[in-house]
TrEMBL record:
It comes from marine sediment metagenome. Residues 19-101 form the Large polyvalent protein associated domain. The lineage of its organism: unclassified sequences, metagenomes, ecological metagenomes. This is Large polyvalent protein associated domain-containing protein. InterPro entries: LPD29 (IPR041311). It holds the Pfam family LPD29.
C-alpha cells in the first residue's frame, strides 16, 4: 500500500485484488459460521468515489440494548463501541468482532485535514434497520 499520509494502515486480510462485492461475500460467510445464532444483513454499494459495506445485526438470542429503544434501531460508531453505554456487554463483544472482521479486509490512508481520502471501502454498522427493528429471538 502506498502510504501518502504517513499514517496509513492495512488489515491483515487486505488484498487489492478482492472487490468489495467479494469481501462482502467472504465476511457474510464468516459471520454465519461464527455467529450462527445471529442474523445479519450485509450489503455493499459501489459509487463514483469508491464503495461501502453496511452490516446490520438484525436478530440475536440475547439482549443488545441496556435500555428500551423505541425504534429498535441505531447506527453504531464502530470506532467507539466500548464507550457506548446503550449496548450490553455481549452486544459490545459481538459488534467489536464484526467490526474487526471487516476492518481486516480494509486499508485507510485518509487525512481529512488535507482533504485526502483513500480507503478500500467505507464501513457502516447498525443494530436493526431503519425500517425493521432489531428482534431478540430467545
Amino acid at each position: 500500500m502506498q502510504n501518502y499520509t504517513g499514517r496509513g494502515w492495512e488489515g491483515k486480510n487486505y488484498d487489492n485484488n478482492l472487490s468489495t462485492k467479494e469481501i462482502t461475500k467472504i465476511v457474510r460467510q464468516r459471520l454465519k459460521k461464527e455467529f450462527s445464532e445471529c442474523k445479519f444483513s450485509v450489503r455493499y454499494k459501489s459509487f463514483a468515489g469508491g464503495s461501502s459495506i453496511s452490516c446490520a445485526l438484525v436478530s440475536a438470542p440475547f439482549d443488545v440494548f441496556t435500555e428500551d429503544l423505541k425504534d429498535g434501531y441505531i447506527q453504531v460508531n464502530h470506532f467507539y463501541i466500548e464507550k457506548e453505554n446503550i449496548f450490553t456487554d455481549k452486544a459490545k463483544e459481538v459488534l467489536k468482532k464484526v467490526t474487526d472482521m471487516f476492518t481486516s479486509f480494509n486499508y485507510n490512508d485518509s487525512d481529512a485535514q488535507i482533504d485526502y481520502f483513500s480507503t478500500n471501502f467505507y464501513f457502516h454498522l447498525e443494530v436493526g434497520q431503519w425500517d425493521k427493528p432489531f428482534i431478540k429471538t430467545a
